[in-house]
């Protein structure tokens, strides 16, 4: 073979490099366009109130449409307490609440931890299953994944509230359009889970008012128009900003990784779910409903006066 006939390896390598770069750019553009389009599809799929974006109200309504999400307080308490307490204590817990029925706090906390662990494993399993086998086709499952995540959070919210003294939450509307009081109470709980400023105080104020027997009309007014409602608006605003929506998409889109997508998504879900639920448990476990020795902070006292004065 003459010199002229020898392969030009440098030119060959340069050609391969250029072809690879061009292919990568084409794939990158395709992926970006696909994800941009998919994000719009996700918004459309979850947008329950039709305002063109995903907000906390959408996640609550979509989550509550999921079968099995609504928790009956009486059935839940009876099931959890019947093997741990006497029949008399169980019945009293249902009529009043577990603390008033003298259920030891250790038992209540143990049930709460079990609830969080159980729902955590369930939602992680769903996230993992939806993410297999991964790849761009997987992102089509993201709306279902997001809704499932918040559906399991809603289950935890209800069960923890019932364990720590709250009455039955009215979720029986056949049209899944709930009254503003119900929606606002749940929004406050989500605010506590995500550490939104003011949410923890609002939850404690509601619990304290219930424990003191504040007139239902006054409490409802506070939740739908007064002090607590102002906090609800702040929480809703926080959930509508980029600090919430961007992490939601970033977290779930990380699952769009070939082959291992499901396991990545399951891991994200596993490690993010528990801290949120633990925050709510911590808040609920120290109110006048759940702790007879709870001491009102100055802020709680001022908020209580606002409720009583209408």
Would you write up a description of this structure?
The protein contains 13 helices and no strands. It is 68% helix and 0% strand. The protein has helices spanning 9-46, 56-64, 73-81, 87-95, 105-131, 142-163, 180-193, 199-212, 216-224, 227-240, 242-253, 261-284, 298-308. Residues 22-35, 130-141 and 252-268 have low confidence and may be disordered. The protein has 310 residues and is mainly alpha-helical.
Keywords:
0% strand; mainly alpha; 68% helix; 13 helices; 310 residues
Secondary structure topology:
Blueprint: H1 9-46, H2 56-64, H3 73-81, H4 87-95, H5 105-131, H6 142-163, H7 180-193, H8 199-212, H9 216-224, H10 227-240, H11 242-253, H12 261-284, H13 298-308
Helix pairs in contact: 2-6, 3-4, 5-6, 5-12, 6-12, 7-8, 7-10, 7-12, 8-10, 8-13
What's the gist of this structure?
By secondary structure, the protein is mostly helical. 68% of the residues lie in helices and 0% in strands. Helix 5 runs antiparallel to helix 12 (261-284), helix 6 runs parallel beside helix 12 and helix 8 runs antiparallel to helix 10 (227-240).
